Amino acid sequence: MAFMRSHLLPQREMTAGEFRAWLRQFDADRDGRISREELQRALQSLHTWFAWWKARAAMKEADVNRNGVIEEEEMGRLIAYANEHLRMKIYEYDSS
Q: What is the model's pTM?
């Protein structure tokens, strides 16, 4: 019997911490950074059209140092991209 790893789908509104936790599910090598391929898998889990293209565009926007991964210091830029282009509402702080 094969077991499939299920990913939790995020709500369209969440905190930055919840967004980071959701992305960690796709960090295949567990290095704490998100590659374009990992981001593409995350977007595919949302049934996003053209996930490969959107992942490429997000990397171009967020990967400031052009090392091929989004590190913690660049996560704010990825959050801004998701807010603007992926129809997500990600808050920096908890509203409680």
A: 0.82
